[in-house]
Design a protein that fits this description.
It comes from Actinokineospora bangkokensis. This protein is an alpha/beta fold. Helix content is 42%, strand content 18%. The radius of gyration is 15 Å and the shape is globular.
């Protein structure tokens, strides 16, 4: 199957976007894909902000993006924009790094008003970065993700089903790309 890199702009593994990223990794792995999670917060901050592509962890992250067949970009929405962590990593990518890759933007946020960040901010950014196969994004409201301290930190059933449904066209895009290169 395909290799998928899940880029998480979550401030922590237990924050809501981190919970969504983990769920996506689990679902894609169960579907037979190789799914790796790249938590941008774990990259060396100074090297990331200084755009030090020679730093080993930054170089490895860029190589992971390059070698992936598809990307899932998970970001919290803050004040109608994606995470600065996501933007910091995407800014390091060389021109054309996303060409031909299936890309699925996902976001979490406090209200339905944050939904517009997917279509009017994150998707255009991905296209501007050279992505040619950006699928419609999917938004998971914060209220549909249990607080990590109050339970399992799980995505509630209706949102989980909707998220799994959003992965179907992404997986179809991966299969089509795989068939073209075979």
């Amino acid at each position: 199957m395909s290799t998928v890199l899940i880029i998480s702009g979550s401030p922590s593994s237990t924050a809501r976007p981190g919970v969504v990223a983990t769920l996506v990794a689990t679902a894609l792995t169960a579907a037979g894909h190789s799914a790796d999670l790249l938590a941008v917060r774990d990259l060396p901050t100074v090297a990331l902000l200084a755009e030090d592509r020679a730093e080993p962890a930054i170089s490895a992250a860029l190589s992971a993006v390059e070698s992936a067949d598809g990307l899932v970009v998970v970001s919290p929405v803050y004040r109608a924009a994606y995470s600065g962590l996501v933007k910091s990593l995407l800014d390091l990518l060389p021109t054309g790094a996303l060409v031909g890759k299936a890309v699925l933007p996902l976001a979490t946020g406090g209200s339905q008003g944050h939904l517009v960040a997917l279509d009017f901010v994150l998707r255009p950014l991905l296209f501007a970065m050279g992505a040619t196969k950006v699928l419609p994004g999917h938004f998971v409201p914060d209220r549909m993700i249990e607080e990590p301290g109050t339970g399992t930190g799980a995505v509630l059933a209706p949102a989980r089903k909707a998220l799994e449904d959003a992965l179907v066209p992404f997986q179809d895009a991966l299969r089509k790309a795989s068939a073209l290169t075979a």
